[in-house]
Amino acid sequence: MSKITFLPDNKICDAPKNITILEVAKKNKIPHVAACGGEGKCTTCRLLILEGIENCSEETDVEQALINQAHTTSGFRLACQTSINGNITARRLVLDSDDIQHMSFDRQGESKKIAIIFSDIRGFTPFSEKLTPYDVVFILNRYFKRMVGVIEKNHGHVDNYIGDGIVAIFGMNDEKNPAEHAVKAALEMVDEMDDMKPYLKTMYGKDFDIGVGVHWGNAVVGDIGAGQSKKYTAIGDAMNFASRVESANKQFKSRVLISDEVYNEVKDLLVIKDFMRTMVKGIEGRVTLHEVEQIHLTNELKQLEDNQKLSDGYKWNKCSKVDTFESEEQQVFRFNKETILIIKVGDEFFGVDEKCPHMNLSMKGGGINAEDGTINCAWHNTTFCYKTGDVKTWLALSNTEKFMAKMFLKSNKQAVGVLDVEPKKIEIYPTQIIDDFVWVGISQGNQI
Ligand code: FES
Questions:
Q1: Cα separation of 156 and 149, whole Å?
Q2: How many alpha carbons lie under 13 Å from residue 94 in its C-beta half-sphere?
Q3: Which CATH class is domain 306-446?
Q4: Which helix (H) or strand (E) holds 98?
Q5: What is the domain partition of the chain in residue ranges?
Q6: SS (HEC) of 181-250
Q7: Which H, E and C letters describe 333-357, residue by residue?
Q8: Do the Cβ atoms of 117 and 167 come closer than 8 Å?
Q9: How much distance in Å is there from the Cα of 380 to the middle of ligand 1?
Q10: Burial class of 286 by CB neighbour count within 10 A (0 to 12, 13 to 18, 19+)
Q11: pLDDT attached to residue 448
């Protein structure tokens, strides 16, 4: 059997016929760089053949093209393309024992199709300029917590924070259906933002919005960097393009844009709002971007059929099991654009808009009074009938509370009207129990 002497570690290994040098190295646990995963897409597995070059197999076309492109000097061969039929001595790209120690076959770099999200907060700089650094960090971390939760729930991982922007990648670890999960995450990020806005408006008198761009393409994925800051990440044109897709939101006044590549990958699952053709830096000609309204994940489509039904002018949506309300009497459910709070009072269930019509703040946790059939919004002490939605008391603040609220709002021009909003009913939703599950009805007039 032919033998390979690997330098600089001076290890001698048997090399069966027609097995590439890279495979021999792997089999013998000899650290060998192969950034593209041994697919003949790079020259990082190159070897300097010190003895026995005549025993190496003929250069393949792929190898020839790469060697020419990389301008290597003579005597170099690619380990992933070369097998031997006689002994050779070869030096790898590793330089010393330190190099060897830091190399492994894991995550040395491979070309992979991934989905990428870029998000950016619109108007955050003017918003933050008026705040103390402590407030800025506090708000940003609240924002990040929500967004990261959405990304991770959808099987993505946050790759980087760029100021207030987030870069997230889907499919790095071969998770299933990365493109559809990325679109789902992008839409949920916008929903989270909408959920956060009333809080920002109330606490800071201002809010901001986000733009999200999603792209699906090939990138080089691997451990990049050194020391403590080394991380598993992706580089390449696809990353830059995702950032450009995000930027196009400003031009089109949209919130979630996806590239044509994402669209083609998941078009059967999408509800599209609009599309646009535009120039993107670094790309010749116009590209098509799509503004997304909604996505139904592949595994949700069947579930959706089981969990929704139409009757009496309502779309009925399955919530959760009756007995789950024993431990959690108030539960929130989101169906398309509706966010509904289901409350259990005695043996009955009632559905109300999760957002208080006063300032759109969350009703969850509001006090329930079963005797007069009301739910209270604790933000400004407003009470609604949970059966009809009628207002029972509106902004029932004491004089001291009103005074404090006015003082708080004085410096805050956008929020001064908070105490002057006219009373508005809260939306209510009918419920029914089917097979031990609570279902809630959304009038079809409310559906988009
Ligand atoms: S937000 Fe509910 S009373 Fe103000």
A1: 10
A2: 20
A3: mainly beta
A4: helix 97-102
A5: 2-101, 110-295, 306-446
A6: HHHHHHHHHHHHHHHHHHHHHHHHCCCCEEEEEEEEEEEEEEEECCHHHCEEEEECHHHHHHHHHHHHHH
A7: EEECCEEEEEEEECCEEEEEECECC
A8: yes
A9: 5
A10: exposed
A11: 43
Using the mean position of ligand 1's atoms as its centre, give its distance from the Cα of residue 46 in Å. 67
- Tell me how far the alpha carbon of residue 355 lies from the centroid of ligand 1, in angstroms: 9
Q: Counting atoms of ligand 1 from 1, which one is nearest the CA of 356? A: 2
For 221, other C-beta atoms within 10 Å of its C-beta total 23
6 within 8 A of 92, measured Cβ to Cβ: yes
CA-nearest residue, atom 1 of ligand 1:
359
Residue 103: band (very low, low, confident or very high) from pLDDT cuts 50, 70, 90: low
What are the backbone dihedrals phi and psi of residue 393, each rounded to the nearest 5 degrees, phi first?
A: -140, 145
What are the b/e assignments for 301-325, b being 16+ CB within 10 Å? eeeeeeeeeeeeebbbbbbeeeeeb
> In which residue are the tokens 């009074």 written?
369
pTM for the whole structure? 0.66
Q: DSSP letters of 119-141?
A: EEEETHHHHHHTS-HHHHHHHHH
Close Cβ partners of 260 (under 8 Å, ≥ 6 residues apart): 287, 288, 289, 290
Which structure tokens are listed for 177?
């259906």
Residue 249 scores a pLDDT above 90:
yes
- Residue whose Cα lies nearest atom 3 of ligand 1: it is 380
The domain covering 110-295 belongs, at the CATH homologous superfamily level, to Nucleotide cyclase, GGDEF domain (3.30.70.1230)
Q: Report whether residue 377 contacts ligand 1, using a CB cutoff of 6 Å.
A: yes
Answer yes or no: are the C-beta atoms of 437 and 319 closer than 8 Å.
Answer: yes
- Domain 2-101 belongs to what architecture? Roll (3.10)
Summarize pLDDT for 104-154 with one digit per residue, the tens. 544 556 778 999 999 999 988 888 887 888 888 888 999 999 999 999 999
Which residue did the predictor score with more confidence, 363 or 135? 363
d(CA 326, CA 344): 8
